[in-house]
Design a protein that fits this description.
Length: 512
Amino acid sequence: MKPPDESSVSEFDHDTFRELGYRTVDIIADYYESIDDRSVYVQADPEDIVTAFDEPLPEEGEDPELILDAVEEFVIPYATHNPSPRYFGFVMGSGTPLAPLADAIAATVNMNTGGWHPAPSGTEVERRCIQWLAEAIGYSSETGGLLTSGGTMANFTALLAALRKHTDFETTDLGLQETDRPRYTLYVADHEGHSSVVRVADMLNLGRDAVRRVPSHDDFTMDVAALEQMLEADQANGDEPFCIIGQAGSINVSAIDPLDALADICAERDLWFHVDGACGAVGAMVPEFEPRYAGMERADSVTVDPHKWLFIPYECGAVLVREQEILARTFAMDASYLRGSVAETPEEFDYYEFGPQMSRGFRALKLWMTLKHYGQEGYQALLRKSVNCAEHLDTLVRAHDHFAAVQEPNLFIYSFRYVPADLQEVLVDPPAVPLVRVNQYLDELNQRIADEVVQSGLAFLTTTSIQDRRALRMSICSHRTTIDDIETVFDSLTEIGARVDEEWRENASLPV
Ligand SMILES: Cc1ncc(COP(=O)(O)O)c(C=O)c1O
């Protein structure tokens, strides 16, 4: 096939387009068919990957068939395969199969969902998604909100609204430029509060120190009494608390803060209550999990991240804000917020009045199609499956002499440690050898186990820090993961742990 020339400029004839499209669908279908057998992490020298893409922009256009060849030859093989059932890194949705088709259609119609007129159906699809998400997690069906690029921008949107409301919108024009402004502070659990909150404080020019880390209990949930003490102390110090953030499914251990108690404190003190449910809010869709989320329905705003535990491919975050007017007053660029907030006809509703982006893509289509495809019951089954896998992993960990549990299996993110049985005894009853050496050894051992399993291609997982000690961390955020996958990976971790421990022990000068 010829590259574009002056006569064809940049369009294909329809038959050519169809051929390219069918080939693209074949590439996608082949990918899904092979995903179970692929090495999850790329088995190539990083230099080869750099070299593969190291070329100048072509002077003359290239044949699209050859470009698709390059996609098959370099882009796909040199990807990390998040859609694999054994991808357990970070918190990455596995990618639902309708979504690539939706994305192709969204790019085709290329609506700009910043406004109703440029995107009538796009706006209505997104509005429906927001309402469905809110209802599915037991939040107000009257809610405002919008899709965002991800959890960070969802948290940003919510916290800017919180700050504006707290300052009675005086900061809209003046920002924080007045010298007599107090220090505005916000509160999140110390161990599990997500780093995106710190980034948002920075983006809002509050300064990273504005994020106060509230002590947690042993189960990693926020200590409410400690929060109240901090609020008192900060207020006595002249600071002005404006927002409390509860975690609904935290980043390392899936902890859910005592949301009802946090809602009470916010109500008593007139503070904004934000729930960062990027990882776990959607668990409230499952009737038997729902009681754990009591109080989330009272939040002023909730971050929900469909590109995590709803398995939607990137990018797709969402923020729900109870009072749409506050969002409109926060983001409208002129007095038209009134139009946004009290839109009497559908075509008065413009998303650019409700969030940071002006131009916006049609990311709602993949979410809408997938929500319709799975329905509530389908999603409930998939969410239960993730939690079952995490519970099974916990059972394996507790039954094995060389592993140690560090948490209860809350939702789908589960952290644990490889600790050889003899060293478990040492930790309980520390001997003369400094404990620090044992802990350092275990930290390195756990890191090495994670590195080896990733390098082997069998699975992708990461380590994290739990109470300052390195732990293995598996985020079971794939609708494709089965109990068999969990067992296979656990066997591999066991084998690597035993082998490396044996190799290293001789030179480790440990007490055993
Ligand atoms: C609890 C929590 N909040 C916010 C974020 C940020 O989300 P994103 O990476 O989509 O910006 C994450 C990401 O892992 C998260 O776990």
